[in-house]
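ok, trying the design again with the full structure, not the truncated one.
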């Protein structure tokens, strides 16, 4: 099952809109919801992306797949998996901090986000300055 670009954009827009509406209601104190409930649209969207990514990575395990083709592709997909897990760790730590489940410093909450941003900058630099030598 493949989604078209328009479907992916619509799905992203829908989950973002739902998250922002719930966030505004929470910040205006109109809804006394738990912070973990506010982030449910983000986690549903991330779960969909993780499942799609894992299925694509598992496709490499089928018989008849030539591992020499797409070695860069698996590295990129592994980076996407790490990035999604870092984002998930940041969201969980942020919700725990906002809900006052933990007394950890805010700087520690942002460590997964900083690692994600540094990794993104390295990936961007690699894609811009990498010269393929064939």
């Amino acid at each position: 099952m493949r989604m078209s670009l328009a479907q992916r954009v619509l799905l992203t827009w829908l989950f973002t809109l739902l998250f922002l509406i719930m966030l505004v209601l929470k910040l205006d104190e109109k809804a006394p919801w738990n912070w973990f409930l506010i982030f449910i649209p983000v986690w549903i969207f991330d779960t969909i992306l993780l499942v799609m990514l894992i299925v694509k990575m598992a496709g490499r395990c089928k018989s008849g797949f030539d591992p020499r083709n797409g070695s860069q592709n698996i590295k990129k997909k592994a980076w996407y998996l790490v990035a999604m897990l870092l984002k998930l760790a940041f969201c969980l730590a942020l919700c725990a901090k906002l809900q006052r489940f933990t007394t950890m410093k805010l700087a520690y909450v942002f460590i997964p986000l900083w690692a994600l941003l540094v990794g993104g900058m390295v990936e961007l630099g690699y894609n811009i300055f990498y010269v393929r030598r064939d």
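Keeping the full-length input from now on. The chain has one domain: 5-132.
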